[in-house]
Amino acid sequence: MTRGASRSPWSGQTTWVGRVDASLRSFLRTETGSARVVVVATVAALVWANLGPTSYESFWHTPLSVQVGEWTLSRELRSWINSGLMTLFFLVAGLELRRDFDIGELRERRRFTLPLLAGLGGMLVPIVIYLAFNAGTATASGWGVVMATDTALALATLAVLGPRFSDRLRGFLLTVAVVDDVVAIVVLAVAYPEHPSPVALLVAAGIFAVVVLARTVGLRYGPVYLLLGVAAWVAVSVSGVDPVVVGLLMGLLTYAYAPGRVELQRASDLFRLFREQPTPQFAHSVRAGLIAALSPNDRLQHLYHPWASYLIVPLFALANVGIVIDRELLARAATSPVTIGVVVAYVIGKPAGIILTSRLVARLTHNRLRPPVGWAAVTGVGTVSGIGFTVALLIASHALSGPALNEAKFGILVATVVSSVVTWSVFRLAARLPEARRARALLGTADEIVDLLVPVQTDRDHIRGPAEAPVTVVEYGDFECPYCGQAEPVVRELLAEFTNIRYVWRHLPLTEVHPHAQLAAEAAEAAGEQGAFWEMHDLIFEHQDALRNADLLHYADQLGLDLVRFREYLTERRGADRISEDVDSADLSGVSGTPTFFINGRRHHGAYDIVALSAAVKGAFAQAKIRPE
Prior knowledge:
The protein has helices at 24-51, 53-60, 77-103, 110-134, 151-161, 167-191, 198-216, 222-239, 244-252, 261-276, 280-293, 296-320, 327-335, 337-364, 375-384, 390-399, 402-431, 435-443, 482-497, 517-528, 533-542, 549-558, 563-571, 576-588, 610-626; strands at residues 2-3, 13-15, 63-68, 71-76, 462-464, 471-477, 501-507, 593-594, 596-599, 602-604. With 629 residues, it is α+β, with helices and mostly antiparallel strands. The longest helix is centred in the middle third of the chain and has 30 residues, at 402-431. It is found in: Cell inner membrane; Cell membrane.
C-alpha cells in the first residue's frame, strides 16, 4: 500500500484508501517528457528524408488493408497512423478536457469562459492572417493549418523557459491548447471531408447514440465501449470524415469523478479478505473492486496516455515531418504565401489573438473574468502557443498537397523554432522587472481555486510560527508513515529558512496501512491537552518504530507530563473526535495519501524536498504581496 519506490526519495507517499486523485501534474509530466521523444523523431524524419527521399516516401506509402468477407478498408501506412493511431491521441485530449470539467480547474464553469474565448481568438486571428497571404489562390484551403497548438511541445517549452512556481500558468496554457485541439478536430471533420457519405455519417451518429445510452444506464464493461468505438471509427472513416474525431468524442463522453468512501472501503475489505485467503477467486475480486473504485476517465488516461505521448505522437512526427530541405525549397519558401502565412500566423497571430481577446474579455466584464495569471504570463502563453506542430501537420496533410504541403511543413517547423525563441525572450524580460512588478506580471491577481476546503482555525489547529503569517503550510500526516518521517526534517529546515510562515499539522492516520498511527495521533492530542503537542509530535517522529502504549507512556514521562491525566485521556479516547474531524477535512479536500501539503490553501504537487517546498513557498509569498486587500 505504499508507492514511490522507484521515484525521487522526496516524492514518495503512503496512499490513503479513502481517496484517489488524478493529478493535473501527472498529465503535465507525461506531456513534457514525451516532447524529447518527439524532437528526436522529428530530427530522424528530416535526416531520413534528406538522405533517402525515395525510401522515405515509398515506405510511408506502403498500402495496408483490412478485409472481412467482401468488405475491405485500405489505407497507406501514413494514413493508418494519421487517422488510426492519432485517434488515441485525441481520445487522451478529450479525456483530459472532460476530467478538468468534472473534477479539475474547470469545475467552476466561469473559469472556462476566458480560456475558451482566448483559444478561439488565438485561432481566428491566425486564420485571417493566413488568408490575407493566400486569398484567391488554391492554397487558401490550408487556413485550418494555423489553428491548433501542440500541447506536448508547448508545455515542454514552458517547463524549460517559464517561471518555476506557477501551476496556474501551465493550467491556463493546457486549457487554451485543448480548446484549440477540440475546435481544430471539428474543423478537420467538417471542412476537409473526402467523398462524404451521409449514410455512413448517420450510422456513426446511431452508434454514438448507443454509447450515450450505455453510459446513461451505467454500463461499465470496457470491451463493449471498445467495440462501439471501433464501429464508430469505421463508419466515420467510410463517411469521408477524418475518424480522429471519434477519439475526441469518446474522450468527452467518459466521465471522471473522485472515488466514494463506499467503493474504496469495499476495495479495502476485499484486499483484507485476499490476505486471509490468497485464492485466485479473491484475487479476481480484489482486482475488480479496485477497478470499480476508479472512474472510467482515470482508467483510460492511465492506459492510453503514455502510449499516445511516447509512441503515437513521435511516430506521427516520423511519418509526416520528413521533407527535403534544399535550395529549391528554401527559395520557394522565401516567397511562398503558404510558408509566410503559416509563420506570421503562428509567430504573430497566435499571441496577438490570445492576448487581445483576453484583454477585451477582462475589460468588457470589468475584470470579473480575467486570466488566472499576469499579463506577462498571458503573453508567454500566447507566444508558446505558436508551436503548432502535431495538429498543424495533420490538417496540412488533408488540406494541401505537392509543393504547397512541403512549404507548409517547413513553415510549421520555422514557426516552432521562432515561437520558442520569442517565448524565451518574454520570460527573460519579465525576470528583469523589479520583484513586485515581476510577481504581478507573472502571477496576476485572480483568485485561485482553494483546494483546502476546511480553512485553518487559529483556535483549533496545531500551529507553529506566527499566527498571522502571510503564508500557511498545512500538512496532512501520519505518525507511522515513513514518508512523513522523511518530510519532517525538511519542514523544520523550511521553518528555519522562512521565519514568517506558519506550519499546521493535521492528522490523517492511515489505519489500514499503519496499525499504530491512530494511537500515536491520540497520544499527541493527549500531550496537547497538557500544552505539549509539538514536543510529543517531535518525539514520535524520532521513534516511529516504537509507537505502542508503553512507548507512548514513556515519551509522556520523558516530557514530564502528568501520566495519570495522559493515561485517562488515552483510555477514554478523548482525542478521537478531534482526529476524526481532521480526517473528514482531508476527505473534503481530496487528500489521497500522506504526506500531503497545502500552501496558502493550494495543494502542493510533486516532490517535498527543501528545494521544491522552498520554491512553492516563495511563489506563495510573491502571490501574497500582490493579493488585493
